[in-house]
Write a structure and sequence with these properties.
By secondary structure, the protein is α/β, with parallel strands linked by helices. It folds into two domains: 190 residues, Rossmann fold (3-Layer(aba) Sandwich), CATH 3.40.50; 102 residues, Rossmann fold (3-Layer(aba) Sandwich). 37% of the residues lie in helices and 16% in strands. It has eight helices and nine strands. The strands form two sheets. It has a six-stranded mixed β-sheet with strand order 1-2-9-6-7-8. A three-stranded parallel β-sheet has the order 3-4-5. β3, α2 and β4 form a beta-alpha-beta unit. α2 runs parallel beside α3. Bound molecules: pyridoxal-5'-phosphate.
Length: 314
């Protein structure tokens, strides 16, 4: 029996995608992060950034916490702040689905929704939209003298995955993992997990998944940062990004991400969001070309229930 919901973070199940990888030379496995109490992979960095700040004396009881988020970091922070009794304001783009704001409010936090840049679409958050969210976040941090976890630049969001996600994958695969792939938002999942896995075995290949139209980390020309894969693909280099642990970038189109999510739900019984679909599509691309016997691991970042309003599963 855990002392609080905060202790229930991590140790999520890893599941083989046997049906989706039938006939391929490699096996694919996915880590189910929606099992976390705040509902996503971002619970890990949310808790880690708050606890690092508490230890460093940067976050005191009663202080405000303010963060720019696509919703999942906000959900994770709202969940952790609820238990810790901290006041939290999440700053989101209007392009993110309403389910995310509703979930953050359910945990007792406030949500500030920033209108999208001209031409923005619900369900798509572009780099320009994110820039507007950044401006509003800075204003609120100043106004409330708030602590800002700053997920794109805070090393604690990397260490959460290094000591958590990466070690768990190593243990759960008994050291047999050969590849890891993750869709990039703040890049905490990719960099933290890759750092841990490569420390165990430097031969493990780690890949970023990026929207086809915005393969920025691959050094390709960015055509369009508007795409349906919420939670990342902003065509920017996060401060915590570390190319030394990344072997390459795989493009995934919005259509492939949607097909990946639907196949994952219909054939494997795992209902994730768009980025989980992108991760499955990227992992299957690797699996088609990998050496026989390879084991490719990826993550199901959150639940498809957060995207019902977009028609992902219609
Ligand atoms: C749905 C979803 N997928 C993927 C990611 C990317 O994770 P990371 O920030 O660790 O790169 C996020 C980040 O917020 C997310 O919300």
């Amino acid at each position: 029996m855990f002392d609080s919901a905060l202790d229930a973070v991590g140790n999520t199940p890893l599941v083989l995608l046997k049906r989706l990888s039938t006939g391929l030379p490699a096996r694919v496995a996915i880590k189910l992060e929606y099992f976390s109490p705040g509902g996503s992979i971002k619970d890990r960095p949310a808790l880690a950034t708050l606890e690092a700040a508490e230890s460093a004396g940067l976050l005191r009881p009663g202080q405000y916490v303010v963060e720019k988020t696509s919703g999942n970091m906000g959900g994770g922070l709202a969940w952790a702040c609820a238990v810790k009794g901290l006041k939290f304001i999440a700053v989101l783009s209007a392009g993110n689905t309403p389910e995310r704001s509703q979930m953050i409010r359910a945990f007792g936090a406030q949500v500030v929704v920033v209108p999208q840049a001209r031409g923005g679409k619900l369900g798509e958050v572009s780099r320009e939209d994110l820039e507007l969210v950044e401006i509003r976040t800075c204003e609120l941090v100043k106004r409330y003298k708030a602590f800002r976890p700053d997920q794109f630049n805070n090393p604690a969001s990397v260490s959460a995955h290094q000591s958590g996600t990466g070690q768990e994958i190593w243990r759960q695969t008994k050291g047999k993992v050969t590849h890891f792939v993750s869709f990039v938002g703040s890049s905490g999942t990719l960099i933290g997990t890759a750092t841990a896995l490569k420390a165990h075995n430097p031969k493990i290949q780690c890949f970023a998944a990026e929207p086809q139209s915005a393969q920025f980390l691959a050094g390709k020309r960015v055509q369009n940062t508007s795409h349906p894969i919420q939670g990342g693909g902003y065509a920017l280099r996060p401060g915590i990004y570390d190319e030394r642990v990344v072997n390459g970038s795989l493009p995934v189109s919005g259509r492939e991400a949607i097909a990946g999510a639907r196949e994952l739900a219909c054939r494997e019984g795992i209902m994730g969001g768009y980025s989980s679909g992108a991760n499955v599509a990227a992992a299957l691309k690797l699996a088609r070309k990998a050496k026989r016997g390879s084991l490719i691991v990826t993550v199901c970042c959150d639940t498809g229930l957060k995207y019902l309003s977009t028609g992902l599963y219609e």
